[in-house]
Amino acid sequence: MRASRNPDGRCELPILHTAGGLVGGDRLTLKVIAEKGSRSLLTNVAAQKVYGSVGRLQAHPKGKWATQDCHFVINEGSDFEWMPQEVIVFEDGLFEQNVHVELAPSSSFLSTEVVRLGRTSSGETLGSGCWRSGLEISRQMPKGKSWVFVDRLELSGESLTSLNGMANQPVLGSLVWTSPEVLSKDEISDLLITCRANASGLEGLMSCSALNQGLSARYLGPSTQAARFWFFRIWMHIRKFRSLPKPEPLRVWPMQEKPSL
Fold first, then answer.
1. End-to-end distance of the chain based on CA atoms, in angstroms?
2. Domain total of the chain
3. pTM (two decimals)
4. Using one digit for the tens of pLDDT, what is the confidence trace for 161-191?
5. Residue 201's domain spans which residues?
6. 247 in Cβ contact with 256 (< 8 Å)
Protein backbone atom coordinates (compact mmCIF):
# COMPACT_ATOMS: atom_id res chain seq x y z
CA MET A 1 0.00 0.00 0.00
CA ARG A 2 1.09 3.58 -0.63
CA ALA A 3 2.11 5.84 2.24
CA SER A 4 0.15 9.03 2.87
CA ARG A 5 0.95 12.27 4.65
CA ASN A 6 -1.44 13.18 7.45
CA PRO A 7 -2.39 16.84 7.99
CA ASP A 8 0.05 17.00 10.92
CA GLY A 9 2.88 15.81 8.68
CA ARG A 10 2.95 12.26 10.05
CA CYS A 11 3.57 9.48 7.53
CA GLU A 12 0.83 6.82 7.66
CA LEU A 13 1.77 3.51 6.07
CA PRO A 14 -0.62 0.51 5.89
CA ILE A 15 0.98 -2.90 5.34
CA LEU A 16 -0.70 -5.33 2.95
CA HIS A 17 -0.41 -9.07 3.56
CA THR A 18 -1.64 -10.69 0.35
CA ALA A 19 -2.45 -14.14 1.82
CA GLY A 20 -5.89 -14.90 3.24
CA GLY A 21 -4.37 -15.75 6.61
CA LEU A 22 -1.60 -17.68 8.35
CA VAL A 23 -1.38 -21.48 8.51
CA GLY A 24 0.90 -23.66 10.64
CA GLY A 25 4.52 -23.16 9.63
CA ASP A 26 4.06 -19.65 8.17
CA ARG A 27 6.50 -17.01 9.37
CA LEU A 28 6.31 -13.25 8.84
CA THR A 29 9.18 -10.89 9.60
CA LEU A 30 8.88 -7.11 9.74
CA LYS A 31 11.81 -4.75 10.29
CA VAL A 32 11.35 -1.00 10.40
CA ILE A 33 13.91 1.74 10.93
CA ALA A 34 12.43 5.13 11.85
CA GLU A 35 14.95 7.77 10.81
CA LYS A 36 16.04 10.67 12.99
CA GLY A 37 13.26 13.20 13.61
CA SER A 38 10.60 11.24 11.70
CA ARG A 39 6.93 10.94 12.62
CA SER A 40 5.14 7.84 11.44
CA LEU A 41 2.11 5.60 11.95
CA LEU A 42 2.29 1.98 10.80
CA THR A 43 -0.81 -0.22 10.56
CA ASN A 44 -2.20 -3.00 8.35
CA VAL A 45 -5.20 -3.21 6.05
CA ALA A 46 -7.10 -6.14 7.59
CA ALA A 47 -7.37 -8.33 10.65
CA GLN A 48 -4.77 -11.12 10.74
CA LYS A 49 -6.35 -14.60 10.61
CA VAL A 50 -4.55 -17.63 12.05
CA TYR A 51 -6.07 -20.95 10.98
CA GLY A 52 -6.36 -24.10 13.07
CA SER A 53 -3.36 -26.43 13.16
CA VAL A 54 -3.62 -28.86 16.08
CA GLY A 55 -4.95 -32.25 14.94
CA ARG A 56 -5.34 -31.05 11.37
CA LEU A 57 -1.96 -31.86 9.86
CA GLN A 58 -1.33 -35.55 9.29
CA ALA A 59 2.46 -35.12 9.41
CA HIS A 60 2.25 -32.86 12.52
CA PRO A 61 -0.71 -33.97 14.69
CA LYS A 62 0.36 -31.60 17.50
CA GLY A 63 0.17 -28.72 15.05
CA LYS A 64 2.68 -26.20 13.76
CA TRP A 65 3.18 -22.62 14.89
CA ALA A 66 2.56 -19.56 12.76
CA THR A 67 4.88 -16.76 13.87
CA GLN A 68 5.39 -13.06 13.37
CA ASP A 69 8.59 -11.23 14.36
CA CYS A 70 8.69 -7.43 14.41
CA HIS A 71 11.83 -5.39 14.95
CA PHE A 72 11.59 -1.62 15.28
CA VAL A 73 14.59 0.72 15.50
CA ILE A 74 13.41 4.20 16.55
CA ASN A 75 16.17 6.75 16.05
CA GLU A 76 16.83 10.04 17.82
CA GLY A 77 13.85 12.39 18.03
CA SER A 78 11.56 9.98 16.14
CA ASP A 79 7.89 9.49 17.05
CA PHE A 80 6.65 6.04 15.98
CA GLU A 81 3.17 4.50 16.38
CA TRP A 82 2.46 0.81 15.62
CA MET A 83 -1.30 0.17 15.53
CA PRO A 84 -2.23 -3.00 13.66
CA GLN A 85 -5.71 -4.45 13.40
CA GLU A 86 -6.62 -7.38 15.62
CA VAL A 87 -5.39 -10.96 15.32
CA ILE A 88 -8.07 -13.66 15.16
CA VAL A 89 -6.77 -17.08 16.20
CA PHE A 90 -9.15 -19.76 14.93
CA GLU A 91 -9.94 -22.86 16.98
CA ASP A 92 -6.84 -25.05 17.44
CA GLY A 93 -4.58 -22.34 16.00
CA LEU A 94 -0.99 -21.81 17.22
CA PHE A 95 0.35 -18.26 16.95
CA GLU A 96 3.35 -16.48 18.42
CA GLN A 97 4.32 -12.85 17.95
CA ASN A 98 7.52 -11.23 19.19
CA VAL A 99 8.12 -7.48 19.03
CA HIS A 100 11.54 -5.97 19.73
CA VAL A 101 11.88 -2.20 20.00
CA GLU A 102 15.15 -0.26 20.20
CA LEU A 103 14.71 3.36 21.26
CA ALA A 104 17.09 6.29 21.15
CA PRO A 105 17.16 8.54 24.28
CA SER A 106 14.65 11.06 22.88
CA SER A 107 12.40 8.82 20.76
CA SER A 108 8.78 7.81 21.43
CA PHE A 109 6.97 4.53 20.76
CA LEU A 110 3.25 3.71 21.05
CA SER A 111 1.76 0.34 20.16
CA THR A 112 -1.50 -1.57 20.47
CA GLU A 113 -2.25 -5.28 20.25
CA VAL A 114 -5.72 -6.86 20.17
CA VAL A 115 -6.36 -10.60 19.87
CA ARG A 116 -9.58 -12.60 19.61
CA LEU A 117 -9.27 -16.22 20.71
CA GLY A 118 -11.66 -18.23 18.54
CA ARG A 119 -14.38 -17.08 16.18
CA THR A 120 -16.88 -16.51 18.95
CA SER A 121 -19.64 -15.39 16.58
CA SER A 122 -19.54 -18.96 15.23
CA GLY A 123 -19.47 -20.50 18.71
CA GLU A 124 -15.74 -21.22 18.56
CA THR A 125 -13.20 -21.08 21.36
CA LEU A 126 -9.44 -21.43 21.06
CA GLY A 127 -9.83 -25.15 21.79
CA SER A 128 -6.45 -26.89 21.84
CA GLY A 129 -4.74 -23.84 20.35
CA CYS A 130 -2.32 -21.42 21.95
CA TRP A 131 -1.46 -17.72 21.62
CA ARG A 132 1.88 -16.27 22.69
CA SER A 133 3.05 -12.68 22.70
CA GLY A 134 6.37 -11.11 23.62
CA LEU A 135 7.18 -7.40 23.73
CA GLU A 136 10.64 -6.08 24.62
CA ILE A 137 11.40 -2.36 24.62
CA SER A 138 14.88 -1.05 25.39
CA ARG A 139 16.43 2.41 25.24
CA GLN A 140 20.04 3.03 24.30
CA MET A 141 21.42 5.42 26.90
CA PRO A 142 24.94 6.91 27.22
CA LYS A 143 25.84 4.25 29.79
CA GLY A 144 24.37 1.40 27.72
CA LYS A 145 21.06 -0.36 27.13
CA SER A 146 18.23 0.28 29.60
CA TRP A 147 15.16 -1.96 29.62
CA VAL A 148 11.93 0.04 29.43
CA PHE A 149 9.26 -2.66 29.22
CA VAL A 150 9.25 -6.45 28.95
CA ASP A 151 5.96 -8.32 28.65
CA ARG A 152 5.41 -12.01 27.86
CA LEU A 153 2.05 -13.76 27.76
CA GLU A 154 0.82 -17.23 26.84
CA LEU A 155 -2.84 -18.21 26.71
CA SER A 156 -4.04 -21.80 26.35
CA GLY A 157 -5.75 -24.54 28.34
CA GLU A 158 -6.79 -23.56 31.87
CA SER A 159 -5.66 -19.94 31.48
CA LEU A 160 -8.56 -19.42 29.07
CA THR A 161 -11.16 -20.22 31.74
CA SER A 162 -9.38 -19.38 35.01
CA LEU A 163 -10.49 -16.30 36.96
CA ASN A 164 -6.80 -15.38 37.12
CA GLY A 165 -6.58 -15.69 33.33
CA MET A 166 -9.10 -14.89 30.60
CA ALA A 167 -12.14 -15.91 32.69
CA ASN A 168 -13.85 -17.24 29.52
CA GLN A 169 -13.53 -13.87 27.78
CA PRO A 170 -12.39 -14.06 24.14
CA VAL A 171 -10.63 -10.70 23.67
CA LEU A 172 -7.39 -9.40 25.15
CA GLY A 173 -5.84 -6.05 24.30
CA SER A 174 -2.66 -4.24 25.30
CA LEU A 175 -1.36 -0.71 24.77
CA VAL A 176 2.06 0.63 25.72
CA TRP A 177 3.53 4.11 25.35
CA THR A 178 7.06 5.22 26.06
CA SER A 179 7.61 8.95 26.41
CA PRO A 180 10.52 10.73 24.71
CA GLU A 181 11.30 12.49 27.97
CA VAL A 182 11.21 11.80 31.69
CA LEU A 183 7.78 12.51 33.20
CA SER A 184 7.15 13.91 36.65
CA LYS A 185 5.02 11.95 39.11
CA ASP A 186 2.29 14.58 38.84
CA GLU A 187 2.28 14.43 35.03
CA ILE A 188 1.92 10.67 34.84
CA SER A 189 -0.62 10.65 37.69
CA ASP A 190 -2.84 13.20 35.93
CA LEU A 191 -2.60 11.28 32.66
CA LEU A 192 -3.56 8.00 34.34
CA ILE A 193 -6.55 9.60 36.05
CA THR A 194 -7.77 10.99 32.72
CA CYS A 195 -7.30 7.70 30.87
CA ARG A 196 -8.99 5.61 33.56
CA ALA A 197 -11.99 7.94 33.67
CA ASN A 198 -12.52 7.44 29.94
CA ALA A 199 -13.19 3.72 30.28
CA SER A 200 -16.81 4.48 31.13
CA GLY A 201 -19.50 3.13 28.85
CA LEU A 202 -17.36 0.34 27.42
CA GLU A 203 -18.02 -3.36 27.95
CA GLY A 204 -15.18 -5.29 29.59
CA LEU A 205 -12.45 -4.83 32.17
CA MET A 206 -9.88 -2.09 31.62
CA SER A 207 -6.79 -1.03 33.54
CA CYS A 208 -4.07 1.55 33.06
CA SER A 209 -0.77 1.75 34.95
CA ALA A 210 2.40 3.83 34.95
CA LEU A 211 5.79 2.94 33.54
CA ASN A 212 8.98 4.71 34.54
CA GLN A 213 8.63 6.82 31.41
CA GLY A 214 5.15 6.22 29.99
CA LEU A 215 2.12 4.02 30.59
CA SER A 216 0.55 0.67 29.73
CA ALA A 217 -3.09 -0.39 29.47
CA ARG A 218 -5.00 -3.67 29.24
CA TYR A 219 -8.40 -4.70 27.99
CA LEU A 220 -10.19 -7.97 28.82
CA GLY A 221 -13.69 -8.63 27.59
CA PRO A 222 -15.99 -9.76 24.77
CA SER A 223 -15.50 -6.98 22.22
CA THR A 224 -12.64 -6.03 19.89
CA GLN A 225 -14.56 -2.84 19.17
CA ALA A 226 -14.57 -1.88 22.87
CA ALA A 227 -10.83 -2.55 23.04
CA ARG A 228 -10.23 -0.30 20.01
CA PHE A 229 -12.40 2.46 21.46
CA TRP A 230 -10.57 2.28 24.81
CA PHE A 231 -7.18 2.48 23.14
CA PHE A 232 -8.28 5.30 20.85
CA ARG A 233 -9.29 7.36 23.87
CA ILE A 234 -5.91 6.77 25.52
CA TRP A 235 -4.13 7.54 22.24
CA MET A 236 -6.05 10.81 21.99
CA HIS A 237 -5.11 11.85 25.53
CA ILE A 238 -1.46 10.99 25.00
CA ARG A 239 -1.42 13.15 21.87
CA LYS A 240 -3.09 16.00 23.79
CA PHE A 241 -0.67 15.61 26.70
CA ARG A 242 2.24 15.95 24.26
CA SER A 243 0.68 19.00 22.57
CA LEU A 244 0.35 17.04 19.32
CA PRO A 245 -2.64 17.16 16.92
CA LYS A 246 -5.58 14.87 17.63
CA PRO A 247 -5.35 11.48 15.95
CA GLU A 248 -6.81 11.44 12.47
CA PRO A 249 -9.15 8.58 11.46
CA LEU A 250 -6.98 5.80 10.07
CA ARG A 251 -7.43 5.55 6.31
CA VAL A 252 -7.87 1.78 6.16
CA TRP A 253 -9.87 0.84 9.27
CA PRO A 254 -12.10 2.54 11.88
CA MET A 255 -10.24 2.38 15.17
CA GLN A 256 -12.02 5.50 16.41
CA GLU A 257 -15.59 5.80 17.66
CA LYS A 258 -16.45 8.89 15.63
CA PRO A 259 -14.50 10.68 12.91
CA SER A 260 -15.21 13.94 14.77
CA LEU A 261 -13.12 12.91 17.79
1. 26
2. 1
3. 0.91
4. 999 899 999 999 999 999 999 999 999 999 9
5. 4-241
6. yes
